[in-house]
Structure formats: C-alpha cells, structure tokens
Amino acid sequence: MTCSAMLLAAVTALPSPNPPLPTTIVEAPGARLVLETASTPQERTRGLMSRTSLPPHTGMIFVFDADAPISFWMKDTLVSLDMVFVASDGIVREVFAKVPVLSPNTPDGDIPLESARARYVIELPAGEAARDGIVPGVRLRFARAP
Q1: Is residue 4 assigned to a domain?
Q2: Total structural domains in the chain?
Q3: For the chain, which terminal residue's Cβ has fewer other Cβ atoms within 10 angstroms, N or C?
Q4: C-alpha distances in angstroms, 91 versus 10, 12, 80, 85, 110?
C-alpha cells in the first residue's frame, strides 16, 4: 500500500467531526418540515454554522428543556434564515423573518439578538415561514417528538 493510500485510509476511518443529527418531522399549515434536531449544548452551539444553503422545507430545530426566554444570533451563519420560536404546546410565539447574514468581522457585541419565550427554535431558509403559513399563534404538529 502506498503512503498516500495509507493516509487516505486513515483519514476516511476517522469519525466525522459533525456526525449527522437525528431529524424531527414538523407539520406546518402549508408544508411538512424535515428538521435536524439539535438537543445538546454542543449541537445547539454549532447549529447551522458554515452551511451555504438549505433546501426548501428543511432546517434545524433547537430543543430546550422547558419554555424560557431564549435568544439567538447569526454568528458565523452563512445563509439568511427565518427564526421561529415555538412553545412547548406547539404554538408559534414569534417569527423573525429573513434574518440577514452578517459580516464575519462583526464584533460579537454588535450582533443583534432575536429573543422570545419558547421551548423550541426552528431555523428555516429565509422566507420559508411565510410560504409555509407559519405565523404567531399557529400550532405546529410534531409528527415525531423532538
């Protein structure tokens, strides 16, 4: 086996630094959403950082222990997103639409926070919430609980 073949074999045997996350299916008024589930602190911190695109009706759901004030920001996020804050009962509390991408040079203190009381935060491609009928007061149905 050549040196480069051994190196390739060693690299491909290494575990992925970001293994695939389980998915949660959410029924919105106008679409079925397939969402990666971020439920640990490490998964929530990584979120959708470094993604350059999201297909329609996909995104991520961030799962917390209970309804509480939650704040999100767009640090190191490369695509504009809709942020949907959802209570434990599935009722949408707040939608922040088309949250823009920020310059990578933006100081942390200058990054705007989107905040609401929720147990779940769903991030979707920008404009997806409106297209799928997701507005405050609507109930989302979890086909499989996160």
Answers
A1: no
A2: 1
A3: N
A4: 48, 43, 23, 9, 30
Residue tagged 């589930």 (tokens): 37
What CATH number corresponds to the domain at position 92? Answer: 2.60.120.1140
pLDDT tens column, 91-133: 999 999 999 888 888 898 888 899 999 999 999 999 999 999 9
38 SS3 class: strand
pLDDT tens sequence across 42-66: 888 888 887 888 899 999 999 999 9
Q: Judge whether 2 lies within some domain.
A: no
DSSP reduced 3-state for 14 = coil
The boundaries of the domain holding residue 130 are 19-142
How many alpha carbons lie under 13 Å from residue 113 in its C-beta half-sphere? 8
Inside any domain, residue 101: yes
**Backbone φ, ψ for residue 30 (5° rounding):** -120, 10
* Residue of 83, 81, 73, 88 lying closest to 118 (CA atoms): 88
Scanning the structure block, which residue is given the tokens 């200058």?
A: 110
pTM of the model: 0.83
